[in-house]
What we know:
Layout: E1 6-7, E2 10-11, H1 12-24, E3 32-33, E4 36-41, E5 44-54, E6 57-69, H2 84-106, E7 113-121, H3 124-127, E8 140-148, H4 154-161, H5 165-172
Antiparallel strand pairs: 1-2, 3-5, 4-5, 5-6, 7-8
Helix pairs in contact: 2-5
Amino acid sequence: MADAQVINGVDVAAVNELVKNVESDPKLGECRFHIENTWSTCGQNQSKVSSFYAAKQEIPHDDPFTLNADEPAILAGHDTGANPVEHLLHALASCLTTTLVYHTAVRGIKIEALESELEGDLDSRGFLGLSNKVRSGFENIRVNCKIKTDAENIEKLKTLSTLSPLFDMTSHGTNVQVDIERK
Length: 183
């Protein structure tokens, strides 16, 4: 058995083993992520993350955690947490980062540093119900990544970034079903 090879902090053998297992049993690749969200007041709410489904089983997080959300004062909130669209930008940034780090590692590409800035355009008239001609969500999102790696890797990284699940969801849409019932 070969010694563990770690590139970009990633155990390449562990990732390759995961890929091999999912190739031989596609059901191992089926995942379901879930959270529980509770509203407290105004725009303040909190999501609890305690487990997820993967590899044909429910897997608890080592330490369950919470994500806090609110709106800034200019949007009538108390500014006690990032607002939901900022959470989406964070989710996209972290997913792109993780995707790049893992996919470069298994290809033997070393990254010395990776930073990104994200910016999204949103017209609040949609959310406020003032216009049905503008979206209530982001119209555009721009991502600027700065990566310290060999120059010949840059084009490969652009292609690899499109493997990000959040890139896929935000650029191609996802079916979202909202059920509302009386408590």
